[in-house]
TrEMBL record:
Pfam family, one: GDPD
Name recorded for this polypeptide: Glycerophosphoryl diester phosphodiesterase
Residue stretches in coiled coil: none
Superkingdom, natural source: Bacteria
Domain GP-PDE: 39-270
InterPro entries the record matches: GP_PDE_dom, PLC-like_Pdiesterase_TIM-brl
GO MF terms, alphabetically ordered: phosphoric diester hydrolase activity
SUPFAM superfamilies per record: PLC-like phosphodiesterases
GO term, biological process aspect, one: lipid metabolic process
Length: 270
C-alpha cells in the first residue's frame, strides 16, 4: 500500500523534525528515526498527528517514521468482531453517526474514517484487528488497548482467541484503563506483556496498589504531566516498566526521557 501523506501533514512532519533539531531532509520515502539510546517510541493510534487515527494510513506512516510500536484501540461490532476505533461513537472520526456496536462489521466498513482529518485521506475505513495483525504483525510492535471492556462482555477472550490465531507474532503488548480487563488479559495470555493505563483520578497510586498491579502488569503507563522521579522509581523498584502518555510537545518529550521512562506514547513518532 502506498503511503498517503497530505501536504498539510508533511509540513507538520518537517516542522517537528526542525523543532527536534534534526538536519535530516524529509522525503516521501525517507524519514528520520529515533536514535537507539531513547525509550521505545509508541505511535499513538498510529502517526495520528499526521494522519487519521486508527487507520491503515496512520499505521503505515508510523512504521515509515520509525516507531517501535503502533498503539491501537479495539471494540466489538454488533456481530462480535474486533474493530479498530477509539470512540464509542462514530461521529468524531467518521462520516457515520451513532454507536459503534449498533453496526455490523460490514456496515462499519462503509463509513469514511479519513476525511475528518484531511480530504486527502478520503476512503480510509474502519479496519478489523485481524486485518491489522495480518498486515503489520511481525513488521512492527503492536500495543492493543481494550476500550470500555465493561460494555463488551467477553472482549478479552475474543482478543485472546484472535492473538492465538496469530500465534507466531512477537512484539505484542496489551493495555487498558480498566485494571480488571488488564488482569483478565494476563490470565488468558500469560506470555504477552500487559500494561495498565493510570487515569488521573487514580493517581498517585499507593504502594499497595502498585504491588497489586505489579503482580500481573509488566507496564504501568501514566499521563506524562503526572509522572515524577518517585513514581518512575517506585514502578522500577517493583520490576515494572513505565510509559508516558500522550506526548505531544518537545517539552514533554524531553521531560519524559529525563525521568527515565521505558516508553513514550506520542502522536508524533518522527
Amino acid at each position: 500500500m502506498a503511503i498517503r501523506i497530505t501536504s498539510h501533514a508533511k509540513l507538520k512532519v518537517v516542522l517537528l523534525l526542525l523543532l527536534l533539531g534534526s538536519s535530516a531532509l524529509l522525503t516521501s520515502a525517507s524519514y528520520l528515526t529515533y536514535p537507539s539510546n531513547v525509550p521505545l517510541i509508541v505511535a499513538h493510534r498510529g502517526a495520528s498527528g499526521y494522519a487519521p487515527e486508527n487507520t491503515m494510513a496512520s499505521f503505515e506512516l508510523a512504521e515509515q517514521l520509525g516507531a517501535d510500536y503502533i498503539e491501537l484501540d479495539v471494540r466489538l461490532s454488533k456481530d462480535g468482531e474486533l474493530v479498530v476505533i477509539h470512540d464509542v461513537n462514530l461521529d468524531r472520526t467518521t462520516n457515520g453517526t451513532g454507536i459503534v456496536d449498533d453496526y455490523t462489521v460490514n456496515e462499519l466498513r462503509r463509513f469514511d474514517a479519513g476525511s475528518f482529518f484531511d480530504p486527502g485521506y478520503s476512503g480510509e475505513t474502519i479496519s478489523t484487528l485481524e486485518e491489522v495483525l495480518d498486515r503489520f504483525g511481525g513488521r512492527i510492535g503492536l500495543l492493543i488497548e481494550t476500550k470500555d471492556p465493561e460494555r463488551y462482555p467477553g472482549l478479552e477472550r475474543k482478543l485472546a482467541e484472535e492473538l492465538k490465531r496469530h500465534r507466531g507474532l512477537k512484539d505484542i503488548m496489551l493495555q487498558s484503563f480498566d485494571f480488571d480487563s488488564s488482569k483478565r488479559m494476563h490470565e488468558l495470555l500469560p506470555d504477552v506483556p500487559v500494561a495498565v493505563l493510570v487515569h488521573e483520578d487514580k493517581y498517585p497510586l499507593s504502594g499497595d496498589m502498585l504491588d497489586e498491579l505489579a503482580s500481573y502488569a509488566s507496564y504501568i503507563n501514566c499521563k506524562v504531566d503526572q509522572l515524577d522521579w518517585k513514581a518512575v522509581a517506585d514502578i522500577h523498584k517493583r520490576g515494572g516498566k513505565v510509559m508516558a502518555w500522550t506526548v505531544r510537545t518537545e517539552k514533554d518529550m524531553k521531560r519524559a526521557k529525563k525521568l527515565g521512562v521505558d516508553g513514550i506514547i506520542t502522536d508524533y513518532p518522527a
